[in-house]
Amino acid sequence: MRDYNWIAIGGGFTMDDDATRMHAFMRNAGKAQRLLDAADADLEAWRDAAGIDAIHLVLETDSDASEPEIDPMPVGEDRVQVYAVRAPWLVDDFVDEDMGAWQLVVHVVAVLMTIHRETGLPLPAFRLGAGEYVIG
User: Fold this and answer.
1) DSSP H or E stretch at residue 118
2) pLDDT in tens, 51-76
3) Which residues, other chains included, contact 78 with Cβ-Cβ below 8 Å and sequence gap of 6+?
């Protein structure tokens, strides 16, 4: 059973990676996931349009990657689309206790937009609350 609504963020590391940085990164990845996953969206409509139930990003650390490298995995029987995303995730920006989760949110959204542009995979449409407004 999944413990998320539409997006999961995990990590992929090697034995050579610094354990303290891995733990800090995973704490921030969990915070970023909860923020994005809690957004109010019509998930039923998104699932129908996308043909999947969820997206799982496995953020694999690669200190040589200058830009995120995104590789889709086959969709499983659980209708979860997994993407391996290689980038230098263990740098200071992503392991910082105060701002690391925010940095991850920004980069994960950029990864999702890249996936959308390159594959046509729809993303959930977020709903505005009753007290909010749109200018224009």
Assistant:
1) helix 100-119
2) 999 999 999 999 999 999 999 999 99
3) 2, 53, 54
- Domain boundaries in the chain? 7-119
For strand 80-87 and strand 69-72, is the pairing parallel, antiparallel, or unpaired? antiparallel
Residue 126: predicted pLDDT = 84
Left, alpha or beta for 13 (phi > 0: left; psi -120 to 50: alpha)? beta
Distance CA 31, CA 65 (A): 24
Q: 46: buried, middle or exposed (CB in 10 Å: 19+, 13-18, 0-12)?
A: middle
- Type of residue at 9: I
pTM of the model: 0.90
The percent of residues in the chain predicted with pLDDT above 70, rounded, is 93
Q: 79, 54 in Cβ contact below 8 A?
A: yes
**Distance separating alpha carbons of residues 25 and 79, to the nearest angstrom:** 27
Residue whose entry in the numeric block shows the structure tokens 């729809």:
122
Select from 3, 35, 13 the least CA-distant residue to 126: 35
Taking 50 as the pLDDT cut, the residues of the chain under it are: none
Supply the pLDDT for residue 135: 59
Name residues whose C-beta falls within 8 Å of residue 31's C-beta, 6 or more positions apart in sequence. 101, 104
